Amino acid sequence: MNNGALQWYALHVKSKHEFATNSELLRKGVETYLPAVKRLRQWKDRKKLVEFPLFPGYIFVHIRSDQEDFCRILKTRGVVTLLSSEPGFPTAVPTEEINSLRLIVGSGNELDIYPHLKKGTRVRVKRGLLAGAEGTLVEKEERFMLLINIELLGRSVGVKVYADDVEAV
Q1: At which of 52, 67, 93 does a domain end?
Q2: What is the DSSP letter of 128?
Q3: Domains of the chain: total
Q4: pLDDT score of 117 more than 70
Q5: Where are the beta strands (DSSP E) in the chain?
Q6: Cα(147)–Cα(1) distance, rounded to whole angstroms?
Q7: Which residue has the higher pLDDT, 45 or 162?
């Protein structure tokens, strides 16, 4: 483990506690990323744009990979566990995945969540609002989608792209 370097980790949090736990982590001085999308919700008397977590039950934290930081995070109200591929050893999420996810969420484009995909061509967006985002190119209903995989969560986020706006990585 590299004790000095900051790395991104995925936190599993209690159901419906994403925003409260995120606020608590921010109060502790922890850098977080809670990707969220706004959706129009209809009530009997009104409509309102409501913010929802893109990955319900998960928050990303940027911390040192040492026991002290892990314990500090795990003691936060609402946190269930740090995700890991190997029990007892939290697994870092590659910075490129977080950066690409930020680009897609920040683009304002309509997003779809997909189950984890292994096949497909790795591509990078060459131009436009998503320039620099890397992911997997797939076809859906005769349209191309750029999927950003968050390996540790086993989920992908998809956004529509034009095939001529991407290049193979």
Answers
A1: 93
A2: S
A3: 2
A4: no
A5: 6-13, 31-33, 36-42, 47-53, 58-64, 79-82, 92-93, 112-115, 121-125, 134-140, 143-150, 155-161, 166-168
A6: 30
A7: 45
Look at residue 1 and tell me if it is in a domain. Answer: no
Q: What percent of the chain has pLDDT over 90?
A: 53
Q: Say which CATH number the domain at 33 has.
A: 3.30.70.940
**Position 119 pLDDT exceeds 60:** no
Residues 22, 25, 27, CA angle at the centre, nearest 5°?
Answer: 110
- Tell me, yes or no, whether 17 and 72 share the same domain: yes
Q: Residue 27 sits in which domain range?
A: 6-93
Same structural domain, 36 and 71? yes
Runs of H (alpha helix) within the chain: 18-27, 67-74, 95-106
Over residues 83-104, the pLDDT tens digits come to 999 888 999 999 999 999 999 9
Is residue 1 scored above 70 in pLDDT?
A: no
